[in-house]
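can u do me a favor
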């Protein structure tokens, strides 16, 4: 089972990273794949309640790959961790099949409760851009995209693109969402508004 998972991760890199030349290169030289291999071993120990060994393996993996994945995190198949340096995935995070995670991403928590889900769930096909932070226990729907350096603090519906700090949806199903327009007022406009306010007060009196 672990070998099948590893092969699917290698194929995911080949399919989604134009720089990947062949499976052997990916298997030997891509630290994102190495981190996933270490994690799948650590997760097996975690599932069998051998928590110290699981955590030890995850710390060794972090030392060699600069990617920290808690052994309790649940990862699907065909995941691409591209470049990977600085990625942090928390204990109760769930990452679905065929997700793509770039360098500097954090799947973190906002609570301190033991035994509760504290980290996000990424549904299949989610893309999280470089430096983005997804914080809290909520779901990010299928095929969503979180822009680089965004800070996502609430759920997203499927096929949504979110940008900004805090992140807000800007596209749904590939169609741009209407923006909230901000009115820009010059000096003349400001004087008119002041006169209107003065007239309103006189009428109220």
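np, heres the sequence
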């Amino acid at each position: 089972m672990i070998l099948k998972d590893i092969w699917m991760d290698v194929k995911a890199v080949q399919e989604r990273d134009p720089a990947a030349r062949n499976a052997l290169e990916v298997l030997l030289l891509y630290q994102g794949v190495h981190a996933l291999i270490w994690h799948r071993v650590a997760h097996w120990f975690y599932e069998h309640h051998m928590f110290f060994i699981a955590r030890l393996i995850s710390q060794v993996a972090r030392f060699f790959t600069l990617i920290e994945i808690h052994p309790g995190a649940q990862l699907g198949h065909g995941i691409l961790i591209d470049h990977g340096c600085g990625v942090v995935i928390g204990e109760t995070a769930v990452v679905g099949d065929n997700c793509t995670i770039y360098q500097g991403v954090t799947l973190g928590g906002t609570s301190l409760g033991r035994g509760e889900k504290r980290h996000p769930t990424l549904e299949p096909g989610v893309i999280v851009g470089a430096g983005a932070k997804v914080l809290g226990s909520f779901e990010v729907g299928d095929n969503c995209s979180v822009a680089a350096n965004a800070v996502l603090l609430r759920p997203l519906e499927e096929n949504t693109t979110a940008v900004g700090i805090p992140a807000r949806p800007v596209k749904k199903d590939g169609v741009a969402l209407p923006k909230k327009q901000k009115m820009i007022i010059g000096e003349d406009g400001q004087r008119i508004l002041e006169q209107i306010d003065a007239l309103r007060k006189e009428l109220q009196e």
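Residues 120 and 138 are 5 Å apart (CA to CA). hope that helps!!
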